[in-house]
Amino acid sequence: VQQCLKRLGKMNLVGCLETLIELIPKKNASKAHAECLVPSQPILETVALKVLGGCKLILRLLDCCCKAFLLSVKHLCLKEFILLNTLASGLLSRLWFVIQYRCVLQTLTSLYGALSTMLHLVSETQQTPYIKGFTFPSDISDFLGVNISSEVKKQKAQMLTTKKSTGWMKKLFPPMLEAVSKVGKKRKSEPCTSAMKNCSIPCALDIGETVV
């Protein structure tokens, strides 16, 4: 997961896209003049190549997040490294869902479709190839080797099923959760002080071992 994030950062995909946006003519300018400047073939090829690589990396990142999340939940069910795996599962699930919620991969695939069309038109006008020895695919799904929508649905079902089926919080802390629920019920009818006195949870109770 960390390697994928570092490579995405070093790729500077956002900066490359911002440069491309600055070169694209505005709608008002295109209406005012019959001719207008468009990004050259080398720039379009560079951005398209980075988009392809970014999609590959994000797809790999999602797969790594899913596998690492399932592994951390498995360790939690075995009561191993509770604090570390709780933190890891929270970070991994949040990273996975942020990418899915913002539709990052779907946006990049649709962007590549527009770039591919523009690259084809520009190359027909004036061929100035920059990247040699590589053929840009017309369909990004063929390059990625998977159907993006089906792959995302499969990972989502796997993660949600794991969350529902394991119920690792109840497995780890059943006495504590029952005591907390009882205290919550008593607080509705009793003052806070009396509820704290009747609480059966020891103050020194911890989920891990003491570290000197």
Any overview of this molecule?
The longest helix has 37 residues, at 41-77. This protein is elongated. 14% of the residues are buried. It is built from 11 helices and no strands. The protein has helices at residues 2-11, 13-23, 27-32, 41-77, 82-101, 104-125, 140-144, 148-166, 168-172, 174-189, 192-198. Helix 1 packs antiparallel against helix 4 (41-77) and helix 4 (41-77) packs antiparallel against helix 6 (104-125). This is NEPRO protein. InterPro entries: Nepro (IPR052835), Nepro_N (IPR027951). It holds the Pfam family NEPRO_N. Residues 1-115 form the Nucleolus and neural progenitor protein-like N-terminal domain.
Approximate strand percentage: under 5%
- Radius of gyration (CA) equals 26 Å
Proportion of helical residues: over 70%
Let me know the largest β-sheet.
none
Shape: elongated
Please mark out the parts with pLDDT under 50 across 5 or more consecutive residues, or reply none. 189-207
Whole-number average pLDDT?
Answer: 75
Encode the helix/strand succession as letters. Answer: HHHHHHHHHHH
The tally of strands reads 0
Distance between the termini: 32 Å
Number of helices: 11
The assembly state of the depicted protein chains is: single chain
- The structural class is mainly alpha
Question: Any key phrases for this structure?
Answer:
75% helix, single chain, 212 residues, mainly alpha
Element layout with pairings:
Blueprint: H1 2-11, H2 13-23, H3 27-32, H4 41-77, H5 82-101, H6 104-125, H7 140-144, H8 148-166, H9 168-172, H10 174-189, H11 192-198
Please sum up the structure shown.
This protein is mainly alpha-helical.
